[in-house]
Amino acid sequence: MEPLGGEHRSGSEGEQEPSSPSRSDLSVEPRAERVERSPDNSLPSGAAGNTRPAIEIRDLTISYRDQPVLWDVDLEVPPGVLMAVVGPNGAGKTTLIKSILGLIRPAAGEVLINGGPYQEHRKEIAYVPQRGSVDWDFPTSVLDVVMMGLYAQIGWFRRPSARHRAAALDALAHTGMADFAGRQISQLSGGQQQRVFLSRALVQGASIYIMDEPFQGVDATTERTIVDLLQTLRANGNTVVVVHHDLQTVPEYFDWALLLNVRRIAAGPVTAVFTEENLRATYGGRVPWSHNRTDQSFVSDRSDPSGQTPG
User: Fold this and answer.
1) Beta partners for 264?
2) Helix or strand or coil: residue 153?
3) For the stretch 163-189, what's the b/e string if a residue is b when 16 or more beta carbons lie within 10 angstroms of its beta carbon?
4) Phi, psi values for residue 112, rounded to 5°
5) Tens digits of residue pLDDT in 79-129
6) Residue 246 has what pLDDT?
7) DSSP letters of 225-236?
8) Positive or negative CA dihedral for 89, 232, 184, 27?
9) Which of these ranges, 20-34, 51-65, 83-97, 134-148, has the smallest mean pLDDT?
């Protein structure tokens, strides 16, 4: 567990992570410089007509004490897709997310955001960390947490204006948390805390959203709220990348998938890559599954007695 305003570390059990630069979970970069809203539903819109990959990863290798965590990974994420990153515990999913965010220096390869290095495009990315990696006893209110997503616009030593406050309340409204704006975050349930971090990401007005296990430990109502929000972001042209562990819901929730186990096993449209062959290659042949001809869904073994989420 780490302080809410302290350095972000992976909460994935079983996955060793290389050390990374200090980042604040509440004020974590990247942040948007301004809030851009689409006219139909007031959620951020991606760049229209952009055919360049939103995220491009070339020959990425990351190791920890000479042990590869990611090995020679190539990936192109098109703009405007909702992509699940799936793989077994220790597959390197959180490491991949950290490399996209510039938190880890690779041993080889590079990551490009909208055609350029992360430092040139960091304001175009919003990040939602794993809820379990945050110390929720940090004494601050829900509204303050969300407004921290606007610090790049407000400035560290200026007071938020009425416009900033309105933008934060609007983001909270989209996640059903506006009525909790004045409450201390320590008083919230796990699902409510996750919605607060989603609100903070929304207020940044980014075009790319990176989320590490947003469904972990949330109730059914919050899960449905998150799914609807992610699909609306995608419909508005934003790119959304989600580390996800529930194979059964991948075809329902996502239109793009990356199957990862240190190496890239497969990546592309869910209808093309989410197959029995690729799943068995990803999970070492240990994934019981069934294919329903009606809804094209896959059912996987989710009976982890520890209740832990794969990393």
Assistant:
1) 260
2) helix
3) ebeebbbbbbebbbbbebbeeebeebe
4) -115, 135
5) 999 999 999 999 999 999 999 999 998 999 999 999 999 989 988 999 998
6) 93
7) HHHHHHHHHHHT
8) positive
9) 20-34
User: What is the C-alpha to C-alpha distance for residues 150 and 160, in angstroms, rounded to an integer?
Assistant: 9
pLDDT at 26 over 70: no
Using CA atoms of 206, 116, 63, 241 in order, give the dihedral in degrees to the nearest 10. 30
Structure tokens of 295? 């809804």
Residues of the chain by 3-state class (helix, strand, coil), percent to 5: 30, 20, 45
DSSP track, 263-282: EEEEEEEHHHH-SHHHHHHH
pLDDT digit string, tens, across residues 192-217: 999 999 999 999 989 999 999 999 88
Identify the residue whose tokens are 């809410």: 4
Length, in residues, of the chain: 311
CA distances from residue 239 to 28, 254, 286, 294 in whole angstroms, order as listed:
19, 12, 31, 28
CA–CA distances in Å: residue 305 to residues 236, 278, 302, 308: 39, 25, 9, 8
For 207, the token pair is 């075009």
Question: The dihedral of CA 170, 172, 175, 177: what is its sign?
Answer: negative
Which residues neighbour 16 within 8 Å (Cβ) at sequence distance 6 or greater?
64, 65, 67, 69, 90
- Is there a cis peptide before residue 30, judged by omega within 30 degrees of 0? yes
Record the tokens describing residue 302, joined without a space.
């989710």
Closest CA to 82 of 178, 226, 191, 201: 226
Higher pLDDT, 32 or 18: 18
User: Coil, strand, or helix at residue 206?
Assistant: coil
The alpha helices in 204-263, defined as continuous H runs, are 220-235, 250-253
| pTM for the whole structure | 0.77
